[in-house]
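Render this sequence as a predicted structure.
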Amino acid sequence: MPKLETILFSIRALASSLFLSINSSFFVSIVLVFSGTLVANTFHLLYQIVAAHQLSPEDFAAVNSLLSVLFLIAIPAGTLQTAVVSQTASARACGRGLPQIKALFREYLLLSLMAGAVTFAAVLLAGRQIQSILQLSSPVQMHILALMMLLSWLSPVALGILQGLEMFGWFCFANCATGLVKVVSAVLFIYLGAGVPGVLFAVCLSLLTTVFVAKAAVSPLRSERPSVAMRGEASVSVRRMFYSYLLPVSFSLFLFTFLVTADMIFVKSLFPPAEAGVYSFAQMAGKIFLFLPSAVPLVMLPKTSGMAAVKADSGIILGKSIIITLFISAVGAGVFNLMPGFFLKILTGTSAPSVLLLGRFFSLSMSLFAVVYVLIIYFIALQDFRFVKYLILSAAAQAAAFIIFHASLVNIQQTMCINAFILLLALVGLFKKRGRFKA
């Protein structure tokens, strides 16, 4: 009987712990953001499906290669979102008011506008070179890419404001509205015969939508009037953040984005257009496994940054984040691999054996990279940039492997799977050295 009572007590304690975990603000926020992200990613997936079904394989590969260039070059812009979230969460944790926070927002918006103008001009100047490397037919596509670059600097700051203030409801609405506008615009432009330029311009309209939604969400801040001293302090803080935080974060996120998107650029350059089209179909399905658990790091970042600001141990947050990410990725990959032909037929209109095999590899490589991303965001929140050296080695090794081992498209994905696994082990080892691992 004593043993039975002990077992029952343990079960009750475990159930109580699980109930408290599920009802914690962290878990509730993840559920909210996961739901919103799932809807938003569904719209982004519909955008890809529309493009895959309505464009030729060569045109679809052109769209994906240009979007890959956008993701690579726009990494510094995404870094601004991370910086806005980190500084806002720290300011709130330290008890600073809305005027100080608004002053920070103002400085980041000015920085994004200046950087966007410079990027716009740079892409226009390098347009012919990019067009030649990617074997594109029209210079109009380069002009739209330049416009996307400009807008890509504003959108992350707008989302960072919502994420930093933990306005996760508005954050989800902004992402969903962005996806909806993207799909509707793409369908309309394809119907009007705009082709590749129309599909790309739909991205521009979606980025503008993010800015307008965020502006409506933070309307209460309009009444706040930061003093001259607050603005000066914010300006100094942003400049200091640029050198100590933005540069290493920008570089690290660039390396991660290179790891998960540069394969399309290499394939477009190393393989014939028809084979690049096949790979782009599989990549479209594969990216689902990277973005499926993306709600987890979105919620983890402000939580961890706030805890770091008050010197609290955030290891338990990372433990929960990794477990949730692994669960979501395992379920997604498991369901896909049970019926890969069915899902690929719906997503791309084809279930050819070559696409099916690549899709299976993508489900593994992107799931591994999803866990890697959680660890990267955790280290960024703690402003511990020792992980960057592992990203440098990983990116260099992967690029070299692409160039040396590309007898077939499968070799590209095999390289990514092996590289992602090795990088994951390296980052887990780095975290254990911190002595903070908690279940």
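Summary. Residues 228-270 form the longest helix (43 residues). The chain has one domain: 31-434.
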